[in-house]
Amino acid sequence: MKSKRKVSLTIDESLYTDIEKAAKTLKMAKSQLAQQAFRLWLKEETDALMAKGYEEMAEEDNAFADLTFQAQREIL
Length: 76
Known about the structure:
This protein is an all-alpha fold and 76 residues long. Helix content is 79%, strand content 0%. The longest helix has 46 residues, at 30-75. It is rod-shaped.
């Protein structure tokens, strides 16, 4: 069994109301809903950082390809 930790959060009243409504509608505990929300947020942030990293790598690869292409043209 996974161990659990208790967390205390301070949130806006309107957000709390929305969370209570969602938990009731979905018939799940607020803590379970919060866990899903945190997991989703972490996944989206990780995906966004990875996408940014891949874009930066692509720019570096293009710059290197341009540099080597120019050097090759000078040699030939």
